[in-house]
Every structure is written in structure tokens, then in C-alpha cells.
Amino acid sequence: MKVIICGAGQVGWQIARHLSGENNDVTVVDSNPELVRRATDTLDVQGIAGFASYPDVLDRAGAADADMVIAATHSDEVNMVTCQVAHSVFSVQRKIARLRAQNYLDPAYADLYRRNHLPIDVVISPEREVAEAALQRLAAPAAFDTESFLEGRAQLLGIMIEDDCPVINTPLRQLTDLFSTLRAVVVGIRRDGTLFVPSPGDQIFPDDECYIFTDTEDMTRTLEIFGKTQSKQERIVIIGGGNVGLGVAQALEARTERVRVKVIEKNRENAERAADALDRTIVLHGDGLDSGLLEEANISSADAVLAVTDDDKTNLLVAVRAKEMGCKMSISLVNDPTLVPLMAPLDIDAYINPRAVTVSSILRHIRHGRVRGVYSIGDAEAEVIEAQVLGTSPIAGQKIKDIDFPEGTLIGAVMQQGKIVRPTGETRIEEGNVITIFAMSEDVPEVERLLQVSIDFF
Amino acid sequence: MAWIVRLPFFVILMGLGAASMIVPAAHGAVMEDFDTMRVFFYGFILFSIITLMIGLATAGYAPRSVARSQLLGLFAAFTALPIMFAIPFHVAVGNTTFLDAWFEMVSSFTTTGATVYDTAGRLTPSQHLWRGLVGWLGGLLVWVTAVSIFAPMNLGGFEVRATGNANSGTSGGFSQIGHIADPSERLVRYTLALTPIYIGLTTLLWIGLVIAGEFPYIALIHAMSTLSTSGISPIGGLYFAASRFWGELLIFCFFIFALSRLTFSRGLIGEHERGLRRDPEFRIALVLIGTVTALLFLRHFFGAAEREDAASLQEVASALWGALFTVTSFLTTTGFESHFWGGATEWSGLNTPGLFLIGLALIGGGVATTAGGVKLLRIYALYRHGEREQERLLHPSSVGGGGKDARRIRKQGAYISWVFFMLFAISIAVVMLALSLTGVQFETSMVLAVSALSTTGPLASVAAETPIAYSGIPDAAKVILAFAMVLGRLETLAIIALFNPEIWQR
User: Fold this and answer.
1) CB B363 within 8 A of CB B376
2) Chain B residue with minimum CA distance to A271
3) pTM as predicted
4) Which of A265, A335, B25, B444 could form a disulfide linkage to A241, CB 3.0–4.6 angstroms apart?
């Protein structure tokens, strides 16, 4: 597949790296020749230096026979125009644009991006994705890992089992009978460092790490059953009032239950912008590392602190300081992946890597076809694949018990006609259903064969 | 016609004033009040000729600063024009001093509506019409000048929302702006835009009142004094109006034009407005009217509860209406007293505190409307500022939201509002002191000072313990009050702006 990536910034670079690694014909366009040169040096890509929205530049980049354009420059407007030019002049089939300004993302104007208006197939908003990731982390403070599937209607939770868990030493089969209305499935257990897919006769022991697939509505109940009291997150302090912080604060404000949010922002203009956009939230102006200011934000009684400034080190230090001052939980935004190993020694509960979030959400759209999402568990030990069942697939029209799944796979959830169904042996998989499959890495190729996803799609 | 526009502002106003004398003359002719007709017609001829001569003499006059000349012209209009208005009035009334006539005209033209001719039958209908007309013209002048003169200079309430320096917004870097609207051009444009609205609204109210059963001539004066918030009435107040409740209801609806300028001059000034319902002035006016009415009503309610005999529902309703109408009328500095206002007192047996009304008149109506007082926008700025300061007690480093405008209002707006408020308070104190020096009693001088500065003439007869008659106060006090009215109408800041070195600079 021939892909043109406009903008060799962090996001563009990562996507170029991924796609070129998957044997695609990638061309990078950037107005900075230095960046382009380095991209062609390091990655297996072609490079064009120039202004991405100029038709002649796109022409030189080979837009005439390109399959896809990904516009990820700094400017929203350039990204939009690039997509328009790619569509109108070169008839490029798929156009993905990154748009940052929230004003462009208002659902009321979603019509704008239709084919006959401003043809953008997929609009990616990194800030929004990161804000969503942060909200996910906040929503399940008891879980060490979370990811949402099926348009956010099902959740994968990673839970550490404690000694006081009420369901330990019980076979999973029995759990299914006990909680017959609960739409949750234990899809993986890591015991003594090895991950395996449990069979119905397996039991859960203390110190196990369980991966559970649950309907989003049943999430609280699931966590309770596994001995995690979902403490209410009523007081949240957000450090950094940029787009991410503001997005999270707005989402929290929109919730029906009352959440007291305080935002700390260093830049006066940003602080004012945040204060204007928020209603009940208190915006404080100052350095988030200042303990006096943290005290003013009443950090000692806060349930969680979310450090989402653009500086990694500030985020880490703020998270540490907040914990030290009595905050119960800290989440930190980390751009630099090499800082991730520091999380445990610093006692930071969770982290968000915005680049990974954006890149994976772009990749999800690129992996066009039936695989909708891929989430990697642990150190690539297993994958959760969300896919739509094709008519040609061998599993279509069959009952789950009749499907010849490999040993290390388990179906987490099935979405039939917009409804989440808990899979049992009797559930019949129809064409068009969306299923999520937990598969150990060695079984992934077999799963892909079952889903009839040919390599062309990658 | 273009040369008329280029005449000094004051000369144009003088010409308009002279031309308007034809109205009472015509009315006198119709009413067979030939004495008045003759006097006003001669006045019309005399002053037209004088204006023409002055006009010819000043035709080539090119002021160094048009804005300053307009501000000066406005100041002169409120002080000197009443002399011209007073001359035919003085002659037509006959048995009065010229000072009284001048005071009457100042009070009318500044839309105060304080009258020394409070005995019934002292003036003929045509003379009453002249009072009402002068007040109406004053109101129109305020409408037009607020938008065309005060708004560009960031005065008269616009300073609260001002984005920057008054004269800094010149064409500096904008090469596409090849021509900046001349102040006199602006004046003409806004006059043409606003006058039809003003006349139309007055006519509408007039017709409405006539339909409600009012005598046409009284209805006309009431309509004119409602629109101009002068509160001038030929029959000693709305209390004696024939149209009763329906008339009051109509007038009540037209008070809205004194609460917010958005009701009539929307989009003229180039601000981005968010509609009347979200206009801070309008909202604060609603809150004020609501609370004060409720307070007054509750006070009467509990007063009535102490009495033995139960009140009928109609009594209660009329007391509520009386309170609502009178409160709104005084907030807009019109000063009409509802017919049912007295009913509230009778119902509960409690006297209605005039202090409420004094306070309301002090607050006043909206910016750039005919209302006087401190103006709602300034009250709003001060309120917002206070609210924000309380927030800052809890979170000293917090940042206030609400947008750029809201922040500006809370900071610079509240500051300048506070300056104005203090100037207003000082004005009251000074006027009171001066009145006391002429031998007026303390309480009387306070009510008079507030009524003059807030341009709410009828306040004197309603708010004080015993009604104060303007005819009874010394001549020196009348002069002081007349100047206080001009001060209240033009606002202290505008007069201070006249002394601004920038304006006098060569």
C-alpha cells in the first residue's frame, strides 16, 4: 500500500516507522528538509521537503497513485487542505487528518467531514485520545491496566487479586453460575510471571493478575466481585490546563455525579482559556510543583492527581510530590518511553503515553478491513483483537462451541446488532458481528486465519 | 443639505429646538389657546432666525477636535438650550419668574421631570405639551449621543466595557481602512437610525394608551415621558390617569427600553452581543425588580397579617402590581407612581419606605438609555468584582472564567465603575451640602440631591416622608439642583473628560 505521511513530527514519525516496518511504500512530506533527510536516513521511507498542502508537492510525493494520505502537520488548516487537495486533485481513497482545535471537533459540525464537503475519512485528535485514556485510568483506579473495546461499551480490566478477594479458590465455571447476570469473562491469568488462558475448571488464587473482559455498565460490579471497592473519585486535581487537561476536566464536569476538579496551569493565557471553558472547575494559576499551590488545591484530600503538562519531568515530580502530600493516586503523562521503568520506584500508579495512544488510534484506522482494534497485553505476551466477522470466515454462522479455536484463545465479548452479549458455548456467531478475542501471541496467526484477514489489510 | 451637517453640533441642536416650538404653537391653535400659540410661534420665528444667523456665522468653523467640540456642544445643550426653551415658556405662562421657567426647562430637557408648576390648572395643555416635548427631545438627544459621542470616547457607561484607550483604535496598521468615520458623520448616521425607532415607539405607546382609554393629549405626554424616562405628566402623575391598569401595563412594557440599550440599538455599536436574555444589564434589572418587589410585598403582607380583617385577593393583587410598577418605574428613573401603589399602603396599614425608591433611582437604568443614575452595567461590574474577590479569598491563585470580556469587566470595569460610583457619591454629598447652605432641611436636601442627580424628578414627592414641592425651595437651591441635573445627565466622567488635557491639547 502506498501511503503519504504529511508532517514528520512525533506522531508522523511514529506512524511512518510502523507502516514502513509493515512493508508499505511510505513517503514523508515535511516543510523542514532536515527532518525529511533524517527520516529517509533512519526509516525505510522516501522523503519530500515541501509544504504539504501544495498540489505540486503532493504530486511529487506520488499522490496520484497513493492509497492513503495521513495529514499530521502542526496546523489543522494545513491538514484539512491537504486532505481536500488529495481528494479533489489526486482522488486519494483514504484520508486521515489530525485536528487539534476542539472547535473543529464539535459533533454538531461533524457533517463537515463528509465526502462531498471536506473529505476527511478519519479525524484524529491526539488531545482527545489522551484525555480519553486519562479518563479510563481514572475510571478504574483499582485496575492496573484498562482498555476499551466495542466503541467503549466493553472494557478490558487488569486486576491484581488480593487475599481478601471473595472469589478466590472458586472454579470459574462456578462463578458463571453464581453471577449469571454479570456480563464478564476472565480471559487471562498471569501467575508467577506466566500468562495463560484459563479453562472453566481453573481457580483464581491470591497474587494472580487477572485480565477480565466486562461490559462497561457492569464494570463496578465486576470490580466489587473481585474484591476491589471502587472508591468514588470525587476530588481530582489536574496539573496542566492545556488541551489534554482541559479535555479531561470538561469530561469530568459533564458527568452526572458531582466531581470536584481543580486545574493548575502555569501559563496565564492557558489558565484563562481553561477557566473560560470550564464552569464549576476551579482553575489555579501557578507552578504545579509549588507545594503551596498544591496545598491550595487541597491535594492532601484529593482522590487522584493527573499530571498532564507537556514536560515529562514535571509530570513525574508533581505526581511524586502529590503522593507525598497525601494524594491517594497519581497518574502521569509521559512522552518519553524510556521513563516508563521509573514508574514503580516513584510509586506512580499509572501513566499515559500520548504518542502511543495517538499512533495506535491512527493504526487502528489504517488496519482497514475487519480488524478494528489490537491491544497488546504485557510484553507482547498476548493480544486482544477486535474484529468484524466476514461472511467468508469459517466461524460465521457457527456456535462458539463448534468453532475450532486454538487452545490459547478466548472470546471476550460479542456485539450483535449493537448489543453486547456474553459469549457462551451456545452463542452463534453471525456475519457482521463484532467479536473481541483474547489470544496468546503464538495463536494470533491462527486467529487471523479464522477471521480471514489477509495480509493485504495490514 | 450637507452643509447643515457641518455646522457646529450646538447650532444644529438649537435649530432643532427652535423648530420644535412649532408643535405647541400648532397645538395651541387647535386648542384655541391663542396666547400660547402666538408666543411659541413667535419663539419659533425668532429663534429660527437667530439660529440661521449663528449658522451662517459658523458655517466655516472647523473645530480642532470634532469630538471635543461635540462634547462641549452637548454640555452647552444641557445648560444653554433650556434658556432658549424657557423664553417662550416664561412669556406664555406669564405669572412666573424666568428662573422658575428655566429650572422647569432644565429639568425637562435632562429628563428629570421635576416641576415647580405642581398646582393643577397652572399651565395650559399646550404648555404642558411643551414640557413633555422638551423632555422627549432630551431623551432622544441622550439616545443618539450615547451611541455616537459617548461610545467612541468610552464614556457614559461604555468605559466599563472599553477594550483599550479611547483614541488608540486609529487606522494604524490597517491600510484597507481608507476613511475613518468623522464624529459628525457618525452623529448623522445614528440620528437617522435611532430617531425613527424613538418616534415609532412613542407613537405606538401613544396609540396604545389612547386605546386603553386615555385622553389623547395626556396619552401623548405620558408616552413621551415614558420613552424619555422624564416622568412628566400634565395631570400630576400617572395616579390620576384615566387608563388605569391597562395604561400602566402598557407603560410598564415600555420601561424595558430604559433597562438595556440592546432593546433598541442592537448591533449599532459593533459589540458582539449575546441577546437580551443574556445581557447582564437586563438580568440584573430583572433580579433587582424581582427582589425589591418581593421585599416590599412581603413587608406589606406581614403588615396586613397583623391586622384583623382579612384582605381580599384583589387587594393583594393590586398591591403586588402597584409595587412592581412603581419599583420598575423608579429603577428606570421615570418616576411614575402606580395608581395601586397607595393601595398597598392602605391594605397593610404600613407606610411604604421611600428609601427603597431612592436606592432604586440611584442605581438607575441601562447604559446608553434615557435612564439616569449609576447605571446597571456599573452595578453589575461591581457585583462581579465582589463575587470574584470572595472566590479569591478561598483560592488566592485561582483564575476567573467567563471570557475575556467578563475578566475585563471584573478588573478594569469594576475599577472605573468604582471611580464613577465614588464621584457620584461625592456629587450627592456636595449637592446636599450646597442645598443645606441655602437653608433646605437635611432630609429634604438628600432626597432632592438624589432626585436631581439620578434625573428622577418625581422622587421628591414620593420618596420623602412628606411630599416635597419644588415650588417651595429657595431660588439658589433651584439653580444648584438644575446644575445637579445636568451633572447627573451628562455623568461626572464626561464633564471631567472635558478637562482632560488630551482633549485640550493643540
Assistant:
1) yes
2) B399
3) 0.78
4) A265
